[in-house]
Design a protein that fits this description.
The chain has five helices and six strands. With 189 residues, the chain is α+β, with helices and mostly antiparallel strands. The N terminus is likely disordered.
Length: 189
Amino acid sequence: MTGAAGPAIGVLEALRRRRMHRYFDPSPLSEETLRTLAWAATRAPAGGNQPSRFLLVVNDPPLVKTVVEVTPSYIGTMPAAIIVILTDLERAEAQMGTQGREQLARIDAGAAAENIALAAVELGIGCYLFRSSNEAALRAVLDLPPAVRVEWLAAIGTPAATPSPAPRAPRQVVSVDRWGGEQWETQSP
C-alpha cells in the first residue's frame, strides 16, 4: 500500500489526525490503496439500509487533471486520484421517497466521504473533500447519466512535503438534555 501508515490506529486517533490536504506529491497511488478507500466509503451507513450511493474512482492522470480543471471550487495541486460520490436519484426516491432523494442520500454521501477521510489517515495519505461548482462540466467529462447527482469529490494522494498548515478546530459546545441546559466544551478524549 502507498503511504506511511505504520501500525493501525484507532478511530479516535484518526479523528485527531484528520485534516484536509490540498497539496499533493505527484506520485500515483496503488490500486490496493484506492480499493481500500472505496471499501471504507461502502462501510458508511445508508438510509433504510438500501444504498443509492455509488462511487466513481478517477485515477487516470489526464482525466484527474480534466476533473480538476472543470471544477473551479477545487483548490490545491493535482491529486493522484479523485473518488466521486454519487447518488442514483431514481433509486433514492424509489426507496425512501422525496426525503430519501433530497435528504437521506446527501447524509449517506457525507458519511461515505468522512469514511474516506478517516481511512486516508489510517493509510498515511492525504484527502481533500470538495464539491463541484460546475456540475454540468463534470457530468460531461465523466459521462454521468441524468439521474445521477454528484454529491462529494475526494481528492486523494500522498501529502506534499510541505503541506498546508492544519486549521485550528473551532470551539464547539454540546448541550446536555435540552437546548441551553448544561453545556460541555468539546475536548480530545
